[in-house]
Amino acid sequence: MKKNLFVKIVALAFAFAAISPLSAKPKTGRTVAQIKKSKTIKIAVFSDKKPFGFVDENGEYQGYDVYLGNRLAKDLGVKVKYVPVEAAARVEVLTTGKVDLVLANFTVTPERAEKVDFALPYMKVALGIVSPKTALVTDPAQLNGKTLIIAKGTTAESYFSKNYPEIKLLKFDQYSEAYNALLDGRGDGLSTDNTEVLAWAIENPNFAVGAGADSIGSLDAIAPAVQKGNKDLLDWLNKEIVELGKENFFHADYEATLREVYGKDSDADSLVVEGGKL
Q1: Rounded to whole angstroms, how far apart are CA atoms 156 and 234?
Q2: What does the pLDDT look like over 242-259, one tens digit per residue?
């Protein structure tokens, strides 16, 4: 009796282990041939980070990253399915195989490169802080003891946690929530990529990015990312980015999606990377 009970317990334990999420293996990233066979590429983009990735009034995805995604799909000869993603979930959607590719203002860092594979860069950014003009931030140290709004899982979160521990960080999953918090006065400033806060300040005239708060930290690269080990898709992307550079594609992308936002006197070369060459 005891022996039979022991056997049943062991069998149940193995059965539970087999279905446990902890034992589930990540889905393998799809090759270029598999993507073409399915006739659709799945790309993660932001849905609320204008002008880089957002959903317009007609429910269509727009922005600098989306312009690139549309071209990649065209050159692959497939349709594109955009999947909205939050900043903190960009690695997860790749490791779980929910998407083939992430184009969501993904800054290349050593920590992230351990979990995903980055292709050649197509944009360069630093951090910036946007704040009310009535209490303009021109130096991050001004925020010691005050509240800075950030999105979870971003370079802003890691940078300020490490370098300015006296700043209180108010964290949100979505950028729309973060900006609403700034508008509501729940923080003294908001930090994310300088390209994005500069664009937001143009559309919100009571706010500005002060001199000294427009380029914080190092100049970093923004690049597409694929699942770790998906060499086939990574190689195709790298070749594609080099070829697109020969036609100045990313400058055309800037003109189509960013020129109106930043103004006629803005310098595309301060943001655009052609052919993967910083």
Answers
A1: 27
A2: 999 999 999 999 999 999
